[in-house]
């Protein structure tokens, strides 16, 4: 998993906006995992979130259809065969929507005492 060099780990100040599409637990976990990264390997996301290939594929497809995530296929340097690995990343829209959604969730929480 490659960290995004342009991301200092803090979301820019954004207007809170709750997003029903991203709020589903698996979608939210995927976006949260990808937020600080430039990209991640499908297998790493699957393992980190303890999801099946089918569940992750279906959820990623939904996020791709929304324009929040992009996927790319690349030859694998570790494999001698023709199989390729899938890389996953948040799109700029996905980052903005996640940041706004996270800000909305934070706005719902009581202030620190």
Automatic annotation (TrEMBL):
Q: What is the lineage of its organism?
A: Bacteria, Bacillati, Actinomycetota, Actinomycetes, Micrococcales
Show the InterPro entries listed in the entry.
Answer: WH-like_DNA-bd_sf, WH_DNA-bd_dom, WH_DNA-bd_sf
UniProt cross-references to PANTHER family, sorted A to Z = BSL7504 PROTEIN
The Winged helix DNA-binding domain extends over: 27-107
Name of protein = Transcriptional regulator
Going by the entry's taxonomy, the superkingdom of the source organism is recorded as Bacteria
TM segment ranges: none
């Amino acid at each position: 998993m490659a960290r995004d060099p342009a991301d200092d780990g803090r979301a820019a100040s954004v207007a809170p906006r709750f997003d029903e599409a991203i709020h589903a637990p698996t979608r939210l976990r995927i976006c949260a995992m990808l937020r600080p990264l430039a990209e991640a390997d499908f297998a790493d996301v699957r393992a980190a979130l303890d999801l099946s290939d089918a569940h992750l594929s279906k959820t990623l497809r939904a996020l791709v259809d929304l324009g929040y995530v992009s996927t790319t296929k690349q030859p694998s340097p570790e494999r001698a065969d023709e199989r390729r690995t899938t890389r996953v990343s948040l799109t700029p829209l996905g980052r903005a929507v996640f940041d706004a959604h996270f800000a909305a969730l934070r706005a719902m929480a009581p202030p620190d005492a």
